[in-house]
Amino acid sequence: MSEELTQILLDAQSTDQEKRNQGMERIKSAKDNNLPVFLVLLAEELKSEEKPNESRQLAGIILKNTFVSKDEQKKIELANVWCNFKEDVRTEIKQILVMTLGSPNRIARHTSAQVIGAIGSIEYLKDLWPALFSDLIGYMNEETQKGSENIQEGVLTCIGYIAEELAEIEELPNVNEILEAISDGMTSENSNDELKLSATTALYNSLEFFESAFGKPQIRDHLMKAMINAAKNQNQKVSQKGLECLVKIAYVDYNSLENFIEDIYEITMKAMTCDNDLLALQSVEFWNTVCEEEEEINELILEEEQDNRVGKKYIQAVSENLVPNLCQLLTFQDEFEDSGWGVAQAATVSLSLISNLIENQITDLTIQFISDNIVHTEWNHKEAGIICLSSILEGTDTDQLQKVIDDALPLLLDYLEDDHEKVRNSSAYAIGRIFEYHFEAVAINTEVLENSIGALLNSLLDVPHVASNAAWALNNLAEANDYTNEETSPLSSFFMPIVEKLSVATLREDGEKSNLRFQAYEAISTTFLKSAQDTLDDMLLAVSPLLERLEATFSMELLSSNDEILQSQIQGSLCGVLQFMSVRLDKQIEEYAERLINCFLQVFKNPEAVVHEEAMMAIDSLINALGTGFLKYLEVVHPYFIGGINSYKQERLCSLTTNAVGDLFKTIEREIPQKCHSEYVDVFLEAISSEELENEVKPDMILVFGDIALSICGEFEPYLERVTETLEHASSVEYTEEDNDQINYIQNLQRSVLETYSGIIQGLKDDQKEELFLNYCQSIIEFLVRIHDTEEDFIDDKMLKAAAGLIGDILSILGNQVKEAFQIQPIQELVNACANSEKKSVAEVGKWALSRLL
User: Fold this and answer.
1) 256 — phi, psi (to 5°)?
2) Four-residue CA torsion sign, 830, 831, 835, 839
3) For 333, phi and psi rounded to 5 degrees?
4) Residue in 516, 526, 509 with CA at minimum distance from that of residue 471
5) Percent of the chain beyond pLDDT 70?
6) pLDDT at 559 over 70
7) 3-state secondary structure of 387
8) pLDDT (mean) for 643-648
9) What is the DSSP letter of 105?
10) In residue terms, where are the HEAT repeats (predicted)?
11) Mean of the per-residue pLDDT values for the chain?
12) Helices within 146-211 (DSSP H only)
């Protein structure tokens, strides 16, 4: 069978189509007939040095594809296939593959390493091969002593693959043994470049597992030196992998850099100026990672949170030399590369990160480069100057950049008509960044503002990525000009031209490219939301054309999945625009209300969940705009509210619907039919008790009970017992672990319970039924005591305000009937803490509650 298999594998690669088909068919037949036996034969083929390279290579590929997959579900299926083999078959295959790790044929040993990586990780996780690492290292040491030069590389490559597969577990066993093997492969004088590359790759894949080892200075320093030596290696593949290790260690253990930062600085500075883009890229990535770590450390310091990292301000120390190098890398643009990640892109990110860290100091380090390059005749230098300016805008003060912007903006507007696409694109982006972070530098010059709008509107006709950035810039312009409550604004005279040109852009046939259509609709929405009062009449005229567009999507011909995606995108964007129009037009939107409701409900027929979310937000805005005028549409919308609340698996839709129903009761109040509010109470109670509902939605649902009670007042009585039972259950949820998500959830839950109790007692009082609330005061007191006894860090101002507010409400309404019961030390301390808050609004509530308590 061995010779026959070899021929089959060769036939499967034949140039003769008939032979190739026969070979592939026989391989498939062998797999289907007896997969375990076939895999043993393939492993033997891969191991045999007498076999042709072609047959060994295909044997390895088939083996690898039997157990290796990037798809997670497929990986689970392949793992189950392997585990269902008999133990003796699995052992035989593993033994053959392990012996192949020392093959002089590099492809054979690397293929074997990859297959062992797959099946080894499967067995290790299922405790079928607990001695996996010891077996591999023991075999390597045994064979190395016999003079095998390939076994080290094969085993270390294998360990690298296994570590990559086991990325989700916290720590590997035999850490010291693995580290010793990796370190020896990286640093031994006898190691060739292939071995060093395999060892360095193994270290890179394993670094997260060795965090505990990095706590030991001797081991940490030894590994840091090994990484640095790898980064210095003359072999560029080894050097690149060494730099990748340094990038990763900066993230995994920032503290380890302290004694080696000078060496790393020299290596990275040299690599940035070499002719190998991959080395330069990793060098920039190292400093990007350091930036991100130091920015996070600074944020934790501001928030007074504990962290084991000690900020060393490396970026501050190296910026004087690092920034000029990064500026030069901006010129490394590829004229024919539209996207992708390269040295110039990494340097752009780096300058932005550094700008946020050293703030105004970045100006002096970049101003000369910007000035020299932004007027350069070569496109890549011109673009580099533009990008450099864009990158430093976020971290600097406007007064530091006023002159730079004054000089640069007219150039940028001219460059929107440059012959080179990349220059036009970067110019549009830079203008958008200026509007985003330094609009006040532009606002003082009316002529420049007018020129900017005109140039950007023209750019909406450019190629998609330029037009998209132009739309984004217009969005930022509108965002920076919030004149919602003003009679007029500097943009009022441009309102209709901006809306009309953006609307045309949304209709472009190539609108799906570079997110152009979405960006144009976003700009329209922001323009509507932020514009002054004198634009409302024009805005009202725009409702009907936009509704016509939305109505047209319902009859779109859907011939492919792309058509369906396009329909969803347009419907979602139009719902978003119409939502903001309802917010601004308020009661004026009423003449279009019926068409709007019909369109939004029609959108729910689209199977795409995200579009449902947009439609629900639009309905919510219409509720707030129409007020009691929405009541005439409640009957037709009500089933969609019930469906949205029951959409447990669509968390955002469920949450948005909950908010909409809350707004419904706040707006329409007692005019909502009893049948409706009864059904809402029932469906919310059922949802809150469901294990399928995400915890994040439950606090909002609880708050709606307070909205309902305030709305229907004494008519809430039939629901009182069931709702308060749910509130008592929610108030009893305890902190079980210091997990931020759980802490936030319980804080939100407790606040919602407190606020809902306040809504209920206020609602009952309006119909003189407050006596019904007496039955629940004792459980509320116990809840308040539990809050008092919670760790101080978990009781924020919002919690104190909600607690004091409830206490004040109860005492104001029930007075002496409950006053003595509430005059206990824990409650008094809660109210005092609220009254002593540094926030005025919180303190006022505390002082008011204190006046009722004493």
Assistant:
1) -70, -15
2) positive
3) -90, 145
4) 516
5) 97
6) yes
7) helix
8) 96
9) S
10) 408-446
11) 92
12) 151-165, 175-187, 193-206
Query: Burial code of 405-421, b = ≥16 C-beta within 10 A, e = fewer?
Result: beebbebbbebbebeee
Alpha helices per DSSP H over 646-776: 651-668, 674-689, 698-712, 717-731, 740-766
Is 756 in contact with 806 (CB distance < 8 Å)?
no
Residue with tokens 């002096």: 364
Radius of gyration of the chain (CA): 34
Q: What is the pLDDT of residue 308?
A: 74
Q: Yes or no: say if 475 and 519 are a contact pair by the CB < 8 Å rule.
A: yes
The Cα diameter of the chain in Å comes to 99
The residue with tokens 């003796």 is 88
CA–CA separation, 293 vs 282, rounded Å? 16
Residue type, 268: T
Q: How many CB atoms lie within 10 A of CB 779?
A: 16
Residue 340 has pLDDT above 90, yes or no: no
Question: Distance between the two ends of the chain, CA-based, in angstroms?
Answer: 96
Q: Indicate the length of the chain as a whole number.
A: 854
CA dist 679 and 645 (Å) reads 11
Give yes or no for residue 600 having a pLDDT over 80: yes
* Exposure string over 45-80, b if 16+ CB within 10 A, otherwise e: bbbbeebeeebbbbbbbbbbebbbbeeeeebeebbe
- With beta carbons less than 8 A apart as the criterion, state whether 495 and 527 touch: yes
- Which residues, in sequence order, are CB contacts of 639 under 8 Å at separation 6+? none
Q: What's residue 2's pLDDT?
A: 62
- How far, CA to CA in Å, does 213 sit from each of 202, 203, 220, 308, 728? 16, 13, 7, 16, 48
Q: Which residue in the block uniquely carries the two structure tokens 């190539």?
A: 510
